[in-house]
Design goal:
- The complex is a heterodimer of chains A (about 130) and B (about 240).
- In chain A, about 80% of the residues lie in helices and about 0% in strands.
- Chain A is mainly α and about 130 residues long.
- The longest helix of chain A has about 50 residues, at about 65-115.
- Chain B has about 240 residues and is of the alpha/beta class.
- Chain B has eight helices and seven strands.
- Chain B has helices spanning about 20-30, 45-50, 65-80, 100-105, 130-145, 160-165, 175-185, 210-230, and strands at about 5-10, 35-40, 55-60, 85, 110-115, 155-160, 190-195.
- A seven-stranded mixed sheet of chain B has the order 3-2-1-4-6-5-7, with helices on both faces.
- The longest helix of chain B is centred in the last third of the chain and has 20 residues, at about 210-230.
- The radius of gyration of chain B is 17 Å and the shape is globular.
- The model of chain B has no long low-confidence stretch (mean pLDDT about 90).
- Classes of the chains: A mainly alpha (about 130), B alpha/beta (about 240).
- Chains A and B meet through helix 4 of A and helix 8 of B.
């Protein structure tokens, strides 16, 4: 392979890894969210640095064009990440619901304890 | 140190069976103790039983993990002006009689860890798990520049500087409350010390002795430590 495509592949893989690692270190990403991105970044770097590895793996799976393997793995990892996000969203929605319920119950309790003279009808009317 | 200025925080998740006995023991051994039970989303009677025992209870509406429960404990300690906060397990594994010694150690360090494997007591962990924990302890000892033999102990006394740091930054992830907390504390300039304690057998099972699981545990712990070392500090 000529130099430019090779460097381009390595460069893109390095950019991917750098972005994820910097976000991890800055606490913009929690560890479990970074996991799959790190996996795919490392695989991309290996494939970029050692193209024969990619070719060999593609041949092993009976795939004629190595790029097809890249596409397939890319889509598969994106699928896993999406499913993980859906699962996290489901959990967060349930937690938010519980918080809302508890908030409603607590607000009523506080209003009762504060007595009628301190009563307000909803949190939006509080100054 | 006046033990009336000490807040004893007991994180608890579904410990209804044992928590009344644990609370009673603390109250007996340390009369006048300020106890706070933090219920981490239990679906049993843990909170109700703790309240019946006359202690303060904070109940998280869903399970967030011991790290989240402890950060809440630190915030409570800070809000109520406690200069010392001691973390103690709700399952009776920690002996409240050791608390005064841990608190005494705060004269020299910001965090005093009640450590197993420091020459006292009957606690036994054999095999791969023991080896993994020893490797971890040696690594962490080098990082925080203090000899530590038990880096996963949840029996700790915290002084005011430690409370200030951890009320803001205390990890909720796996191993966050032990390994990462040590590194975070170290990077914030806290000093650590150890105090040998005897831990009693846990009511439930013994931790996994499996070789593979121990190796995975060690790798995860080292990664957690590496991340904590490199991470940007929370302001």
């Amino acid at each position: 392979m000529s130099l430019i495509p090779y460097l381009f592949g390595v460069g893109v893989a390095l950019v991917m890894l750098t972005v994820i690692i910097v976000m991890l270190l800055r606490r913009s990403l929690r560890e479990r969210h970074a996991l799959w991105w790190l996996v795919i970044g490392i695989l991309a770097l290996i494939a970029a640095l050692f193209p024969p590895v990619l070719d060999g793996t593609a041949r092993f799976f009976g795939i004629s064009l190595p790029i097809t393997l890249v596409m397939f793995l890319g889509i598969f990892v994106l699928f896993l990440v999406s499913v993980q996000h859906s699962s996290e969203l489901t959990k967060l929605e349930e937690q938010t619901r519980i918080l809302a319920e508890q908030h409603a119950l607590l607000e009523a309790k506080v209003a009762r304890l504060s007595g009628p003279e301190a009563g307000t009808h909803s949190s939006q009317t509080e100054a | 140190m006046n033990l009336g200025q000490v807040l004893i925080v007991m994180p608890a998740m579904n410990e209804a069976e044992v928590i009344p006995a644990t609370i009673a023991e603390v109250q007996r051994v340390i009369p006048g103790a300020n106890i706070l039970v933090i219920d981490d989303g239990s679906d049993d009677e843990t909170s109700a039983l703790a309240r019946d025992a006359g202690v303060e209870v904070l109940r998280l509406p869903f399970n967030l993990g011991v790290g989240a429960a402890m950060r809440l404990g630190f915030q409570y300690a800070a809000n109520h002006g406690y200069p010392v906060m001691v973390q103690l397990d709700s399952d009776g594994q920690h002996d409240p009689a050791d608390v005064p010694r841990l608190v005494e150690g705060l004269g020299e360090a910001d965090v005093v860890i009640g450590a197993r494997f420091a020459g006292v007591g009957e606690y036994r962990a054999r095999g791969p798990r023991m080896w993994a924990m020893r490797v971890l302890s040696q690594l962490l000892s080098r990082v925080v520049r203090t000899k530590l033999t038990d880096t996963t102990s949840g029996f700790k006394a915290h002084g005011p500087r430690a409370i200030d740091v951890f009320k803001v930054d205390f990890p909720a992830e796996y191993l966050g409350d032990t390994v990462e907390a040590l590194v975070i504390g170290h990077r914030a300039g806290l000093t650590f010390a150890q105090c040998p304690v005897a831990m009693r057998e846990r009511a439930g099972g013994t931790p996994s002795q499996n070789g593979l699981r121990s190796a995975v545990y060690l790798v995860r712990a080292m990664l957690a430590m590496l991340l904590a070392l490199l991470r940007v500090r929370v302001k």
